[in-house]
Design a protein that fits this description.
By secondary structure, the protein is an alpha/beta fold. 32% of the residues lie in helices and 22% in strands. The site of zinc ion (ZN) has 5 residues, from loops.
Length: 455
């Protein structure tokens, strides 16, 4: 047999098993063979000896802000960073573009903005906001993977938070459409009142901001969303869970039969409250960074198997929006992490805490692809699926520098960290799109509908 590409001799993570020495043969952008010492020739041969071969990451939570707010981040720059870091598919959040992705016309505007510039494949979340629910039908027909709702203020005026009735009725509609609802789960009442009280007293610092978004505000909103999911039969996904208590609540509901999944983000796993003080606005996010003891609870839940997936919540802004002096509440809350998902999880999970490499692949690719309808084409390495993969050199130590970053503003709070394990190549549908942190070739990414067809 003759192949377009053969990746020879890598430690391939296929399925749930331990890495095995296999060759990957690619024909027409799909994996055509996966076996030791593959016979036959290839137009292109990549020597992967000493490297891990993992499924390309599926980052279920990124904000690409395109069209309308491309001065924050766009498809070109955001997906460049994602590609360099080993991500081959991302799912874009609906809030930061103008218009936000809340109806069929806005979905079409996203597709137009991405066409010809996206470096990786991109699927879209639609928005669940107050207003006519028929828009959810429109978005489903257009091809969104699900609907995102905010239970507290989103940070942008164009995307209004879902009140309880909007959330309850939206979940019922989503259940009928067979699509999941993802929630930013923090109590608007608790966070809003605590923030107002702090500001009225002139308390505007990092610690005051963190105190205005306590773990109980997260846990209460998660419990309320799960109650609505149980009531409506809707599949629920809780984004960026920041506390072990939040994950425990989700695991308990799942054990009762509620269809609920959750994600956390690298920043909740590798940064803590002390980093929040040290880094200031660069590390501002919502929910906020937690004390070290809470971070360790989160790791325990992740290693115990209760966290379904890890996504970046790449949420960049121009530097000026972070530069608000003493008023930390006024700074944009969002962390740009597009490029470091796999590397941070490899370093702090696999190397530092004994996380299984197959589990890393599940957290970053298999689980998000399966949960959001992109499997089997995406998220795993098996014969017949898209040849989306990354090569990681486990022996490479590297320093994250600003010069390495390819996103629009390069304001990552991870700059200055030395990481063990580096993504040295990213392959999308059989074509190398990034090598050793640099882009290769022209953009070949597509916008995907939930059924896998190009939009
Ligand atoms: Zn987000």
């Amino acid at each position: 047999m003759s192949f377009d590409l053969i990746i020879r001799g890598g430690q391939v993570v296929a399925g749930d098993g331990a890495p095995a020495t296999l060759d990957v043969g690619v024909v027409d952008g799909r994996i055509a063979a996966l076996e030791p010492e593959l016979a036959g020739g290839g137009a292109e041969i990549i020597d992967a000896a000493g490297l891990l071969v993992l499924p390309g990451a599926v980052d279920a939570h990124v904000h690409l802000n395109d069209p309308g707010r491309t001065d924050w981040e766009g498809f070109a720059t955001g997906t460049a960073a994602l590609a360099a870091g080993g991500t081959t598919t991302a799912i874009d959040m609906p809030l930061n573009a103008i218009p936000p992705t809340v109806d069929g016309a806005a979905f079409a505007a996203k597709v137009t903005a991405a066409r010809g510039v996206t470096r990786i494949d991109v699927a879209l979340w639609g928005g669940l906001v107050p207003g006519p629910l028929d828009r959810l039908d429109e978005l489903a027909a257009a091809g969104v993977v699900g609907f995102k709702a905010f239970m507290s203020a989103s940070g942008v005026a164009e995307f209004v938070a879902a009140d309880d009735l909007t959330l309850l009725e939206g979940m019922a509609r989503a259940a009928r459409l067979g699509l999941p609802v993802a929630v930013h789960a923090e109590s608007d009442v608790l966070t809003g009142r605590l923030a107002a009280r702090a500001l009225a007293a002139g308390r505007m610092g990092v610690r005051d901001y963190r105190a205005s978004r306590p773990v109980i505000a997260e846990v209460e909103a998660i419990e309320r969303a799960m109650l609505f999911a149980a009531e409506t039969g809707c599949a629920l996904h809780v984004v960026h869970v920041s506390s072990g208590r939040g994950v425990t609540a989700i695991a308990e509901a799942r054990a009762r039969g509620v269809d609920v999944s959750c994600e956390t983000c690298p920043h909740y796993l590798v940064l803590d409250a002390e980093d929040a003080e040290r880094l200031g606005a660069a590390a501002k996010c919502a929910p906020p960074l937690r004390p070290a003891a809470v971070v360790e609870e989160l790791w325990a839940r992740l290693l115990g198997g209760d966290i379904d997936l890890v996504a970046t919540d790449h949420s960049p802004s121009p530097a000026a929006l972070k530069d608000t002096g003493a008023d930390h509440f006024a700074a944009w809350g969002g962390i740009p992490g597009a490029q470091t998902l796999v590397a941070l999880l490899y370093d702090s999970g696999v190397v530092a805490r004994g996380l299984d490499v197959a589990r890393l692949a599940a957290l970053t690719a298999g689980a998000p692809a399966a949960r959001f309808g992109l499997a089997p084409a995406k998220g795993s390495l098996t014969v017949g699926v898209d040849a989306d993969l990354l090569l990681l050199d486990p022996a490479r130590e590297w320093l994250v520098t600003r010069d390495d970053l390819l996103d629009r503003h390069r304001l990552s709070p991870f700059v200055g960290r030395t990481l063990r394990g580096r993504v040295v190549r990213t392959v999308l549908r059989g074509t190398t799109i990034a090598r050793d942190g640099r882009l290769v070739g022209e953009p070949i990414g597509r916008v995907l509908r939930r059924d896998g067809t190009p939009a």
